[in-house]
Amino acid sequence: MTRVGFGIDIGGSGIKGAPVDLKKGRFIEDRYRVPTPQPATPEDVVAVVAEVTAHFAPEPGTPVGITFPGVVQRGVVLTAANVDDSWVGVNLNHLAREATGYPVSVINDADAAGYAEYRYGAAHGRDGVVLLATLGTGIGTALIVDGTLVPNTELGHLTVDGADAEEFAAESARERHGLSDAQWVAHLQRYFDEVEKLLWPDLIIVGGGVSKEHDMFLPHLTLRAPIIPAELFNDAGIVGAAAHAHRQLKKKHSK
């Protein structure tokens, strides 16, 4: 029998969801996407979350995992740079549970991607310290230690050489600063050097859309740890959110 979870990815431009086969880490049906309301207030976004859930009508009791682009502690949103300031202090767990009628677990979007890569992707079965860094408009990070997620690490905001790391090392920095590929690789090298000094990871995974072009930059980085591309790409958030929600529900029932 297939173990089924349900994941929803809240992004700045779209809110996407799909049922997930929790054994294989794959979608059971094609994802369903609705544009993110503008302004992206809690009430309007949660209404779309309910719409996406209702589109698939998961079995009653199915755990619903939701990613959010910000720091989330025990279901409460603490930062919301890419949505709306009114989110800060909102208990998204409670709002989404009331709106959908399902058990809900909310997780930072980069953490969801990292958890998916650990469970099903590039870091599957790896012990030790695993770091995922998504290189896009900013730098999202997830840290997993011996299979346990350390939430909300926000290592894209490390200060490196007096600047916020994502300002010069995110994928968007290439166009913003007119960097050549070689210059951007040098910035990435500086960033990951600093991360290695702090964390001593056993494995680094690079995600985000640019990871599909990993041959252009990963071979040029010289680090202690192996650095490899992510495998789940755009599915990672939904898959990781679903798997994490299932794990949280199991932990709750085992107490």
Explain what the structure shows:
- The chain has helices at residues 42-56, 92-100, 109-120, 165-169, 172-177, 181-199, 236-254; strands at residues 4-10, 14-21, 26-27, 32-35, 64-68, 72-73, 76-77, 104-108, 129-135, 139-145, 148-150, 159-160, 163-164, 203-207, 227-229.
- By secondary structure, it is α/β, with parallel strands linked by helices.
- The protein folds into two domains: 4-108, 2-Layer Sandwich (Nucleotidyltransferase, domain 5); 122-230, ATPase, nucleotide binding domain (Nucleotidyltransferase, domain 5, 2-Layer Sandwich).
- Strands 1, 2, 3, 4, 5 and 8 form a six-stranded mixed β-sheet that branches.
- Strand 9 (129-135) and strand 10 form a beta hairpin.
- The chain starts with a strand and ends with a helix.
What are the key terms here?
alpha/beta; Nucleotidyltransferase, domain 5; 2 domains; six-stranded mixed beta sheet; 15 strands
